[in-house]
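Our preliminary data section would be incomplete without showing what the modeling component actually yields. Below, a chain of 118 amino acids is followed by its predicted structure, encoded as tokens that our downstream tools consume directly.
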Amino acid sequence: MRVQVDRRHRGSILVASLAGELDHHAAQAVRITLDQELAGQHGIRLILDLSGVTFMDSSGLGVILGRYKKIRDSGGEMAIAGASRSIDRLLEMSGLHKIVRMYPNCEVAVVALKEVVK
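Predicted structure:
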């Protein structure tokens, strides 16, 4: 199954909603899509909405970590929202919980990221 990436802006926050399996077959396409959206932007705030992700492997973790580093290096903020229990466990085991803010859903993440810049 391919991963679909739906991008929308919530004010100054970019929300990228992923749906499907984020594995080695889909990682490159997701990476390219997100990088095109992030290109040339400084201080961007991104929420990765993983509520539609049904499976993720280490390639998916690499996509998330790589985008986190790009955003951090440009002075931005990134959060993850809506991860299922199994995806959340993978994120926790990988250590991403220590560096990326996690929220139960997109609405909570949007409010939290708006507060970061105040």
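The CA atoms of residues 87 and 93 lie 10 Å apart. The chain has a mean pLDDT of 93. Preliminary results of this kind motivate Aim 1 of the renewal.
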